[in-house]
Design goal:
The complex is a heterodimer of chains A (305) and B (328). By secondary structure, chain A is an all-alpha fold. Chain A is 79% helix and 0% strand. Chain A has 13 helices and no strands. The longest helix of chain A has 39 residues. The radius of gyration of chain A is 24 Å and the shape is flat. Chain B has two domains: 239 residues, Rossmann fold; 73 residues, no CATH class. In chain B, 33% of the residues lie in helices and 23% in strands. Chain B is built from 13 helices and twelve strands. Chain B starts with 6 loop residues before the first strand and ends with a helix. Classes of the chains: A mainly alpha (305), B alpha/beta (328). Chains A and B meet through α9 and α10 of A and α2 and α4 of B.
């Protein structure tokens, strides 16, 4: 177990270094921040001073070495835009994103399990056909389009919900629904497929021969087995959700890490982009380790290997 | 069979509807089991014996399987017309089943102790620690060493024979009146087969159970069964007390079956395989289903289904030439 976790952390570390490298150099391809932060008629002196202050006058490799040294001391630099430590901005934005993604994912998983299981119980039935169609539509709908159409319909035309921003529960509805569509749609299909297999298995037959009730057969015997593949997909989708959050937060004006990332990229706020990507990557690595642990906890066959 | 039968199956018909054809798996199977007896259902693959057992337990998945006729009475109750929820209360408590492949028939993600204890929980007999303790006791009873420790283990940690013992422990947990064992030893090593059969037979005797033993193994039938029901192409073609049927069969198929297996007392005798292959159940031959493979077959066999011919009390065969076969 310790060895397994050790290799996992090591692999994650290597991937993280690669990611930092990529982000560091790619973000510098977006252009020179000096042009954005100084007035158009700023003197050469001022420009030089700005570049020197932030280290942009050195070569990219030199900048990287300085960056690595700072990171090793826990310093991810100052936001160019906000004149505050970049890490502070990221950590401020994170809870918003986590809350949004957490609610969306929990709802998606719970709903998908119920809908997928019922669909698999009577394959080809009315419920199965309707849910298959709905989940396919959800999985394939482009979220930015759904988001904008949702605002147009429910916020502008009907005036039931606010267009954007944060506040009471009514502000949550549209972002959550948009964020849920894809994971929910995909997971209904995964749950359905693995439940179909589980429900026609020999151990379910045994459970019936034992006189176990149908709900326990579906939600205990079959689901516990089908759950193993659902977890894998749910993990991947959670990662995807963080990407989805970039779009949803931007469209709905949620002050989360997705919006922070986009704003920082547009404004060439390199330190903030780097900090946001690093924290997100670490969150994803942590999530993957949690999924592995869940797998071990749920499947005794893996536990004993 | 002085006792009123605990189970009687009358003219049971099961078909599987696939996209293109209808497979007639069971075509009017009729048999009965008396309390405390061991009845063997003997037949080769595709004879309908396992489907019959699944139909009795109402475990067939529909579609594709449909019970299209006949009746099953268990302890005087009409099984097939009972609401499923009501029938499930009989399952595990009054009638239990041991399946062929214990590896896939046990749930891989729950401990065996949990799966045995589930019977007590599902039927409201015991819960929590009480149910667990009873499960451990059962594991000991079926001969699993260190039952308290092994109860926490999972299916993949057991050997084939031990897994089948776990299945048997589950089946006898609530002391059912009838145990159906569907090829319980087919997936096991020969040495383990004998142990499992012995265990089943001991448990049956101790708890006054009746047992339906589904098998293709003549040796097993001869060893443990009281009566035998020989199935071919979804019908019971011959039945009677085991010793009588096996020593002097009255159906050409039973005779051919006996001649195709080696027996100690016929040393030096040449084995005669049964010619041809089992019938395609989507296209069962007219007349007697066995006629294309039968050395006694006449024109009558090709056109007319044979009636049931009484051979002795409690013994009958569906064969036009029962007399001739009997006298061989």
């Amino acid at each position: 177990m310790a060895k397994f976790l050790g290799t996992r952390v090591l692999h994650s570390g290597i991937a993280l270094i690669g990611l930092i490298l990529a982000v560091f150099f790619l973000v510098r391809l977006t252009g020179d921040p000096t042009d954005l932060y100084l007035p158009i008629d700023a003197s050469l002196e001022t420009r030089k001073e700005f570049a020197h202050k932030h280290g942009f006058d050195r070569s990219a490799v030199e900048q990287f070495l300085v960056f690595l040294k700072d990171v090793s001391q826990g310093d991810l630099g100052y936001s160019l835009r906000k004149q505050r430590p970049a890490m502070e901005l990221v950590l401020e934005a994170y809870p918003t994103t986590l809350r949004l993604a957490g609610v969306a994912m929990t709802l998606s998983i719970a709903l998908a399990i119920v809908v997928g299981s019922i669909a698999a119980y009577r394959p080809g039935g009315v419920f199965d056909r309707i849910s298959s169609m709905a989940s396919l539509a959800g999985a394939s709908a482009p979220d930015f389009w759904i988001a904008i159409t949702g605002i147009l319909l429910f916020a502008v035309t009907f005036r039931w919900l606010p267009t954007s921003g944060v506040g009471g529960i009514e502000y949550w509805v549209l972002p959550i629904v948009v964020l849920m569509l894809r994971p929910f749609g995909l997971m209904v299909q995964v749950v359905r497929a693995s439940m179909l297999g589980a429900l026609s298995s020999a151990y379910v037959k045994t459970a019936r021969a034992k006189g176990v009730g149908e709900s326990a057969i579906i939600f205990v015997h079959a689901l516990r087995n089908a759950g193993l593949s659902v977890i894998t997909v749910a993990g991947d989708l959670t990662v995807g959700l963080i990407n989805g959050a970039v779009i949803v937060e931007t469209v709905f004006g949620w002050p989360g890490v997705g919006k922070l990332m986009i704003d920082s990229v547009i404004q060439r706020d390199f330190p903030t982009v780097q900090a946001a990507v690093m924290v997100t990557a670490m969150a994803i690595f942590l999530l993957n380790i949690v999924i592995d642990l869940l797998y071990v906890a749920l499947d005794p066959r893996i536990r004993h290997q | 069979m002085a006792d009123h039968p605990i189970l009687s199956v009358d003219n049971l018909q099961v078909e599987f509807r696939t996209g293109r054809e209808i497979v007639h798996a069971v075509n009017g199977a009729t048999f009965s089991v008396a309390p405390r007896e061991t009845a063997a259902i003997l037949g080769e693959s595709g004879s309908g014996k396992s489907v019959t057992a699944a139909a009795i337990m109402r475990l067939l998945q529909s579609p594709p399987a449909f019970v299209t006729g006949g009746s099953v009475r268990f302890k005087g109750q009409d099984v097939l017309s009972m609401p499923m929820a009501e029938w499930r209360r009989f399952c595990g408590r009054d009638i239990a089943m041991v399946f062929q492949d214990a590896l896939t028939s046990l749930n891989p993600v729950f401990s065996v102790g949990w799966q045995i204890a589930e019977l007590f929980r599902a039927h409201g007999v015991a819960r929590g620690k009480d149910a667990r303790d009873r499960a451990i006791e059962l594991l000991g009873r079926v001969g699993i060493p260190d039952p308290a420790l092994r109860a926490r283990d999972y299916t993949h940690q057991f050997s084939g024979g031990m897994r089948q013992r776990v299945m048997i422990a589950m089946a006898i947990a609530l002391s059912p009146d009838l145990l159906t064992a569907d090829e319980p030893t087919t997936a096991l090593d020969v040495t383990v087969q004998a142990q499992i059969m012995e265990l089943l037979e001991d448990l049956r005797r101790e708890s006054d159970m009746a047992m339906i033993l589904i098998t293709h193994d003549l040796g097993v039938v001869a060893d443990v069964a009281d009566t035998v029901w020989v199935m071919y192409a979804g019908r019971v073609v011959e039945h009677g007390p085991v010793s009588a049927v096996l020593s002097r069969p009255a159906h050409a198929y039973t005779l051919a079956l006996l001649n195709s297996v080696p027996r100690a007392r016929d040393k030096g005798r040449k084995l005669e395989p049964i010619a041809g292959s089992p019938p395609d159940l989507a296209r069962i031959p007219d007349g007697c289903a066995f006629h294309p493979r039968c050395r006694f077959a006449t024109n009558l066999c090709r056109v007319e289904a044979p009636p049931s011919v009484a051979i002795a009390p409690g013994r009958a065969a569906e064969c036009h030439h029962a007399g001739k076969v009997f006298d061989v």
